[in-house]
Q: What sequence folds into this?
C-alpha cells in the first residue's frame, strides 16, 4: 500500500510518501499553502497526480488533523477537514485524518540532529512533519493489523 500524507500549514504544505510495503515514511516536498481552500485543494491534487501517475501509484492520502494537546480540535481542524474532503472528491482516493499533535516538534528535533543551519531546517520542516504524521499512521495501522485508509472522515470528538 503506497500512501502520501499532508501537513497542512497556512504558508506551506508538507508532503511525505511511504514505500510500497507501507512500512517507512519519507519526506517528499513542500508546496505553498496559502490561498482559498479551493486553491489549496487544486494545488495538492496537482501534486498528488504526479504520484498517482507514477510507476508505484498511490493508494490513499493521510491528512494531519490539528488537535490541541488536551484532544480538543484546533481552529484549523475545520480547514483540514475541508481540504481532506476536497482531495478525496477530486482524486477519488481514500483519505484518512491523523492526529498531528506535536509532529512539528518531533520533526524539528529530528532535523536538528542532522542539520545545524536553522534556515535549511525551516525549508525541510513541513515535509518532515508530514513524514512523522504518516509514520504514526502506518505504525498505528500496523498495530491494528491492517494499513487500509478510510473513505470516511471521522467527526470531531467533543472531548
A:
Amino acid at each position: 500500500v503506497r500512501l502520501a500524507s499532508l501537513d497542512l500549514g497556512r504558508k506551506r504544505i508538507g508532503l511525505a510518501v511511504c514505500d510500497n510495503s507501507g512500512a517507512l515514511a519519507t519526506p517528499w516536498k513542500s508546496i505553498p499553502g496559502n490561498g482559498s481552500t479551493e486553491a489549496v485543494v487544486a494545488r495538492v491534487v496537482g501534486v498528488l497526480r504526479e504520484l498517482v501517475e507514477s510507476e508505484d501509484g498511490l493508494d490513499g492520502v493521510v491528512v494531519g488533523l490539528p488537535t490541541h494537546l488536551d484532544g480538543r480540535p484546533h481552529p484549523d481542524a475545520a480547514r483540514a477537514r475541508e481540504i481532506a474532503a476536497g482531495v478525496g472528491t477530486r482524486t477519488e482516493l481514500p483519505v484518512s485524518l491523523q492526529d498531528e499533535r506535536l509532529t512539528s516538534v518531533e520533526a524539528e528535533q529530528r532535523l536538528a540532529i542532522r542539520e545545524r543551519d536553522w534556515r535549511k531546517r525551516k525549508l525541510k520542516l513541513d515535509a518532515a512533519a508530514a513524514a512523522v504524521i504518516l509514520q504514526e499512521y502506518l505504525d498505528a495501522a500496523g498495530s491494528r493489523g491492517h494499513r487500509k485508509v478510510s473513505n470516511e472522515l471521522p467527526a470531531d470528538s467533543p472531548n
Remarks:
- Strands lie at 3-8, 12-18, 25-32, 60-65, 95-99.
